[in-house]
């Protein structure tokens, strides 16, 4: 089981972000994607980012995940400033510490669910068994199915299993439900909820699916490159109960 809410509150933060700014382009073409973001993410928290298109949500996740560089400000992962990492440190950090889930699943069509995950676990230090990772997202009966034999929601759950099988400390999910209807999207969010509760992985998720707000520990509202509101769920809702 993951840490309780009380244990999480005492845990040191996994991220501390101060004055994070991102400007794309220069001069008349400059776009201010982030205008000074501050946040603290407790280890083991489920954090949801909500806000209109273009408000900076993806930019923040990309910088936290070491996929993009900040223009100014800091993002500490424990005591190390990700914004100061060189390319080698970024590669190492992404490989060891961060799992990514995107809108599109990017599974290898010629490999089964289990084999897609084994691709990652073969190059990890302390991986989960691919079958255990798939069981965690409710796909224990789909181990030997190919992506084309799985629904969109099932494929996304394979992508989640792949992302967590290397046991990353954080899981960054950019619109994982974007291509799915709301019922299927809710199942995908239930898989993320399960991962967060069982493994204690710190999860950030961008989604427009309404059920997420109750499942999260914290909801961050974005507007025009800033966090414009925060809601903390002191008593997080019970796990999303589902038959997969
Ligand atoms: N590589 C880039 N070059 C130039 N501008 C960019 C780039 N990436 C993002 N932007 C701009 O930065 C702003 C923030 O974009 P971002 O993708 O972070 O928003 P978002 O809140 O995730 O939006 P969405 O919900 O549509 O994905 C937008 O105005 C976007 O057009």
Automatic annotation (TrEMBL):
Coiled coil: none
GO MF terms held by the record: ATP binding
Residues of the ABC transporter domain: 15-244
Keyword Ligase: no
PROSITE patterns: ABC_TRANSPORTER_1 (PS00211), ABC_TRANSPORTER_2 (PS50893)
Pfam families per the UniProt record, alphabetical: ABC_tran (PF00005)
Iron in keyword set: no
Key words of the record: ATP-binding, Nucleotide-binding, Transport
PANTHER family per UniProt: BLL7988 PROTEIN, IMPORT ATP-BINDING PROTEIN
Name the record gives this protein: ABC transporter ATP-binding protein
